[in-house]
Amino acid sequence: MAMISSVCLRERWTRIERVVRLGCRCLLLAGGLVVLSGCTNEVPASYDSGVPIELAQDRADTISNVHYDLTFSIPSELSEPVRGAAIVTFDLRRDGNVVLDFAQGPDHVLSVRANGVDVQYAVKDEHITITDVPSGQARFEIEFVSGDQSLNRQADFMYTLFVPDRARFAFPVFDQPNIKARYDLELELPISWRAVANGARVSREAQRERATV
User: Fold this and answer.
1) Are 143 and 110 in contact (CB under 8 A)?
2) Residue 53: φ, ψ to 5°
3) What pTM was computed for the model?
4) Reported confidence tier of residue 29, pLDDT bands at 50, 70, 90
């Protein structure tokens, strides 16, 4: 009887050891997953429309020294769209995705390039998400069609009103107040039109019925 009890106890203890070892492995695996997920710094694939606080905070922490080179071609006919191009340069502190605000559909984004080479991007919920951007100085060239929501177009004039968050309807931008930027603006417009802005005019070139300012 004592031998049977001893054998039974050994078998039960062996089973307990196996359970404990398995439990330890599960805990270690779970702990590893927690550590890995805690170390990742990837921007989510997409955000809700607008500028969620998580997106604004991530960009404020990782993006600086922003500059926009903006070009708009303004047609004489009100029925024709305003086309534009933006060269966006900035410093990025970490590898990952970059999200620009642009409150237009995918058909309004004509191309996205980095140093003349097409890059992977997605247009969804008022954002352009560019994937797998390395840290350091970034430069993107984006061709697009502006929306009319913030352009206030009339038959013989047009003016913009970008406050408080309307710039993203007209061109791709980091549209939040804690990301400051400098910009250069070029307008290609009907020759009879006059361009007025809150900066000094650098040049004006006329060719046939169009002028570039």
Assistant:
1) yes
2) -60, -35
3) 0.76
4) very low
